[in-house]
Structure formats: C-alpha cells, structure tokens
Inverse folding.
C-alpha cells in the first residue's frame, strides 16, 4: 500500500497534534498533583481538551483545502 503526499501530510500533522495533547496532559498531571488532581489542575485539563478540539478543527479545515 502506497501513501500519497497528501495522506502522509495528514497523518504527520495529526500525530503531532495528538502528541502535543498527550504532552500537555502529562505536564498538567505532574504539575498540578500526583495521585489527586486539584481544582486548578482540573480546569487546566479541561482547557487543554478544549484547545485540542479547536486545534484539530483548525487543522481539519486547513488540510481539506
């Protein structure tokens, strides 16, 4: 199976975006608590999820053009 350039670009951009989200979630987990996440950390985690959704929507719009 051979991938064309556009499909490969979509895969790379998506993997980078997911990697950034995972890195943000790990950072928030370590910075705002170990076994218990304090309210500020919870808010930061919700914000990172919201930013991830917005980022993926923007990426989707630009890749579809």
């Amino acid at each position: 199976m051979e991938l064309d350039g556009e499909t490969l670009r979509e895969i790379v951009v998506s993997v980078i975006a997911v990697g950034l989200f995972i890195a943000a979630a790990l950072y928030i987990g370590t910075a705002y608590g170990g076994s218990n996440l304090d309210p500020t950390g919870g808010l930061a985690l919700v914000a990172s999820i919201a930013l991830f959704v917005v980022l993926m929507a923007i990426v989707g719009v630009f890749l579809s053009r």
In short: The helical segments are 5-31, 39-64. The two ends are 24 Å apart (CA to CA). The chain has one domain: 5-64. The CA atoms of residues 31 and 41 lie 8 Å apart.
